[in-house]
Write a structure and sequence with these properties.
Elements lengths: L9 H61 L1 E4 L2 H5 L8 E6 L3 H16 L3 E6 L6 H8 L13 E6 L2 E2 L14 E3 L4 H10 L4
Parallel strand pairs: 1-3, 2-3
Antiparallel strand pairs: 2-4, 4-5, 4-6
Length: 196
């Protein structure tokens, strides 16, 4: 035999093969365990994310519910306003625009709405320029047919602007105010119409 040739005993070769197999088995056993742990951790994160999402959605629901139960200044569309003559329960509708007088009244009305248990409706006519739309708005109530002045406060009940006067020949109903309105005047108007 050649000096460079190494003789390996069959027993040694068999032991080396067994060691490699044993090491390979240990490695295979470890991998699924790590994978299971990772899957378990991932499953826990999915669980926590789902629970967190449900908690946030529930919180938002209760915040909206609380806000709506307290009242507030709710913006309505033109379609909603055109149905205002069908309103049965006493409601305040504030018609405004981006003019200076309405801008002065906005914070006053928002303050009242925030501190009231009643819900006030706000209809912004700033973007309405079509004469037919303006005519539609004017024709919702008999009292507004001749003009549309902003800002305008209307207290509506049973499909009509509230008018609690015995002598109705004087013109403007008690549930309607137009033009410049300062805070004391608005307070008196809201109190007189049971909206404060």
């Amino acid at each position: 035999m050649d000096d460079k040739t190494e003789v390996i005993d069959l027993k040694d070769l068999d032991q080396m093969a067994k060691k490699k197999k044993k090491k390979a088995r240990k490695t295979r056993k470890k991998m699924p365990k790590e994978t299971k742990e990772n899957q378990s951790k991932l499953g826990m994160w999915k669980y926590f994310i789902a629970i967190g999402g449900v908690a946030v959605a529930t919180l938002i629901f209760f915040i909206v519910l609380f806000y709506n139960s307290r009242g507030g200044l709710v913006t309505i569309s033109m379609d909603d306003y055109l149905k205002a003559n069908k309103i049965q329960e006493r409601t305040l509708i504030y018609i405004g625009s981006d003019d200076t007088i309405s801008q002065e009244l906005d914070p006053i009305m928002q303050g009242f709405a925030k501190n009231s248990d009643k819900q006030y409706q706000y209809f912004d006519i700033s973007d309405i320029t079509d004469p037919q739309d303006i005519t539609k708005i004017q024709n919702v109530f008999v009292e507004t047919q001749n003009s549309l002045v902003v800002p305008m406060l209307l207290v509506v009940e049973n499909g009509k602007i509230v008018d609690e006067r015995t002598d109705k020949s004087t013109g403007v109903p008690t549930g309607m105010m137009v033009g410049y309105l300062d805070e004391p005047t608005v307070i008196k108007f809201l109190e007189d119409n049971n909206m404060y």
